[in-house]
Specification:
Number of strands: 0
Order of helices and strands: H
Mean pLDDT: 87
Distance between the termini: 138 Å
Largest sheet: none
Length: 99
Amino acid sequence: MSTIAQAETILRAADHAAAQDFRWWFVALLIIGIIVALILFRWFDAQLTRLAQRLDSVQDAHTEFLSGELVTTREALAKNTTALEDATTLIHTLKTARG
């Protein structure tokens, strides 16, 4: 093969590669885009999992707090009921003594 034939072959190969250049850029960018999308999906999934765990712990703490407050409220209601009954008995006794 002569030098001119080799040069023409190299030029044809370079011309073909130049025409293919944008296709390879597209394929490369598509692959990079898919990889970035997968990384973002995994990151958002991890964030969502952490958020769900935090929410569960906050709900558990709040439920425990409300259970304690419910017991305190029941005790206060029982004391108030007893005080109201005592006051009602005292008023009834005073009314009876007066008249």
